[in-house]
Design goal:
Bound molecules: 5-bromo-uridine-5'-monophosphate
Structural class: alpha/beta
Radius of gyration: 17 Å
């Protein structure tokens, strides 16, 4: 894997334009933090995005948990993304036949393709889900193509997750088959050397790894979530650490975001030395 290289070096050489942009943002802001903004009103979401914006590289949304989603949610979020130079990741976890996920991604009630730079999917339905989402994002008449990318959910952080072994290896194979659209994985470690893959890696392969379940003060929750620290996640290959309650539910969310930023950056610097 290329995880020993700096974000700047990876930004210069990565074949995917959105991956380059991700690494450029991380380098410019000295942040590898993705905040999982799991709040349930537009005002709370925009307020968090504005206050935490300076310290994060990416905001991760679950747009369908908002009780008052409207076009103002989107225009507000996009304005803050430009103001603070962060990218938007909608954690919708598409998981259906190709024909359905295309309709869930593009248009519909949530219009995800219009505003989410990054989306993710599970490969339970097979490789066709990746092909379907790529087809929509890279359609000739879709104006945002170069700014859209997919993370494959290759592993999960919850207790007893079934996304292991052959399933994880298939995720890597599918990612290798769609290098212009798949940025990398949501996983707990780097997967370029995962066992059981059948598609050979290319020379320039440089998967981006997002790791959820990062928390500085808790080991887990009562519903099976399992946490690790920024140091541990980045040591295992995370390029971007995702923290939700550890940041937004802290007594002072801004202070917490700064702390995750500092620890995430220190762990990254230690890794690239
Ligand atoms: P937390 O508050 O830091 O536990 O929130 C974690 C977020 O990451 C939450 O939005 C989950 O839906 C998301 N998540 C996860 O926790 N574990 C996974 O394996 C994946 C996503 Br994929």
């Amino acid at each position: 894997s290329k995880s020993h290289l700096t974000y700047g070096a990876r930004a210069r050489t990565h074949p995917n334009p959105l991956a380059r942009r991700l690494f450029e943002v991380a380098e410019a802001k000295q942040s590898n933090v993705t905040v999982s903004a799991d709040v349930t009103t537009t005002q709370e979401l925009l307020d968090l995005a504005d206050r935490l914006g300076p310290y994060i590289a990416v905001i991760k949304t679950h747009i369908d948990i908002l009780s008052d989603f409207s076009s103002e949610t989107i225009t507000g979020l996009q304005a803050l993304a430009s103001k603070h130079n962060f990218l938007i990741f909608e954690d919708r976890k598409f998981i259906d036949i190709g024909n359905t996920v295309q309709k869930q991604y593009h248009g519909g009630a949530l219009r995800i393709s219009e505003w989410a730079h990054i989306i993710n999917c599970a490969v339970l339905p097979g490789e066709g889900i990746v092909q379907a989402l790529a087809q929509t994002a890279q359609a000739p008449d879709f104006p945002h193509g170069p700014e859209r990318g997919l993370l494959i959910l290759a592993e999960m952080t919850s207790k007893g997750s079934l996304a292991t072994g052959a399933y994880t290896a298939a995720s890597v194979d599918y990612a290798r088959n769609y290098p212009s659209f798949v940025l990398g994985f949501v996983s707990t470690r780097s997967l370029g050397e995962a066992e059981g893959t059948t598609v050979a890696p290319s020379e320039e392969e440089d998967f981006v790894v997002f790791t959820t379940g990062v928390n500085l003060s808790s080991k887990g929750d009562k519903l099976g979530q399992q946490y690790q620290t920024p140091q541990s996640a980045i040591g295992r290959g995370a390029d971007f650490i995702i923290a939700g309650r550890g940041i937004y539910a802290a007594p002072d969310a801004v202070d917490a975001a700064r702390q995750y930023q500092q620890q995430g950056w220190a762990a990254y610097l230690a890794r690239v030395q």
